[in-house]
Design brief:
By secondary structure, the chain is α+β, with helices and mostly antiparallel strands. The chain has 5 helices and 19 strands.
């Protein structure tokens, strides 16, 4: 038998726990980071301190102070800067040390910072050396204000690439979700170097009961549209012509090769009260749709040992996705061992607001 080029041993990037491709990755939900507060975040093997300045800007920087390695998320936000709790070194939004209370002039010390943005209810951090791509946008929602809510976050026992490949696996819709095979035929196309678009192009069948029931709600084919950004995040749009349901699955690589995910549910924002009430109900319906597919797929994510030994014709969409991921730039991100601080609430331990004044003795130990 000819060895498949899509097997793990022949892949450099896809399903590789030791690399992170360039892109925007979720860090935490926006509502979790209040103005003037900082949070510790572990993002794909790197510890970060993320804070919201007094003006509301989000800043992401390396977690550990270049002085003696204290975790900066335990510090205090002062205006547009963050002051370390340990010796009160102060770092501005660009990561440069601008003040040490016991010194007349700050030393040449700094921490690396990373572009960070509020978007769709999440704080996203750019991982990569190049100019950041545009933030992920659901095609049908581009240019519209949106209402957002979340389904339950998840951890899957497989790489984010595997999680993302599931939604374009046509075969599993027939076997797991019992969707008739002639309703879905997905074709993909490359939008740009970072983005893939998949759409259902199968005509609505009228020779089956389910086809005849659904046909009045769809002008051409059943709506099933996906937009993938990089290899770890993507949107799914489903629903009849008069109403679309939008879901984003945002994944990041966790420790031990797991996928840590957020499920974002979105709808266009209405300008009136009744429209807002309808939108809220629609988000509830979107959650039901998301949960249905997620619950059916969870068992395989918990037990899969992915190694694509025998691709067949129906796997074309997955193979296209794998080839796309293989061509993505790899970020110079670096990995570190998990720190116990990642599971600790820092705020009670470092609640002191006392600041060292200029002229006080520096702590030496």
């Amino acid at each position: 038998m000819i060895d498949s080029k899509y097997r793990n041993k022949n892949l450099q990037v896809f399903n590789n726990d030791n690399v992170v491709t360039e892109g925007w990755y979720w860090a935490l939900q926006s509502k979790e980071l209040k103005t003037g507060k900082a949070k510790p975040v572990r993002l794909s093997g790197k510890d970060l301190a993320i804070f919201r300045t007094e003006s509301g800007k989000v800043v992401a920087m390396d977690a550990y102070c270049p002085h003696r390695g204290a975790h900066l998320a335990g510090g205090t936000v002062e205006g547009e800067a963050l002051r370390c709790y340990y010796h009160h070194w102060k770092f501005n939004e660009k990561g440069k040390c601008v003040d040490v209370p016991c010194l007349k002039k700050a030393p040449k010390a700094e921490v690396s910072t990373y572009p960070a943005e509020d978007h769709y209810g999440l704080i996203w951090v750019w991982v990569g050396q190049g100019k950041p791509h545009e933030l992920p946008i659901v095609p049908d929602l581009e240019g519209h204000d949106v209402d957002v809510t979340f389904a339950k976050p998840y951890v899957k026992n497989c790489h984010p690439n595997i999680v993302m490949s599931d939604a374009i696996d046509v075969q599993h819709f027939r076997s797991v979700h019992r969707i008739p095979g002639n309703i879905l035929h997905i074709e993909g196309k490359k939008v740009n170097d970072n983005t893939l678009r998949y759409d259902n192009v199968a005509a609505m069948p009228t020779d089956t009961i389910i086809g005849r029931l659904l046909a009045p709600f769809y002008k051409t084919q059943l709506t099933y549209s996906l937009c993938y950004w990089g290899g770890c995040a993507g949107s799914v749009t489903v629903g009849p012509d008069f109403q679309r349901y939008h879901i984003i699955y945002a994944n990041r690589l966790g420790d031990n090769g797991v996928s840590e995910g957020q499920v974002i549910l979105l709808t266009k924002r209405s300008k009136n009260v009744l429209g807002r009430m309808y939108g809220k109900a629609l988000l509830g319906a979107t959650r039901i749709v998301s949960d249905y597919f997620a619950n059916g797929d969870t068992p395989q994510f918990d037990s899969i040992n992915f190694d694509f030994k025998t691709p067949i014709k129906d796997d074309k969409t997955i193979l296209t996705f794998m080839s796309h991921v293989e061509g993505l730039p790899v970020a110079d991100w670096g990995f570190s061992k998990p720190n116990k601080i990642d599971s600790v609430d820092l705020s009670p331990a470092f609640s002191s607001n006392r600041k060292q004044t200029e002229g006080e003795a520096c702590t030496i130990s």
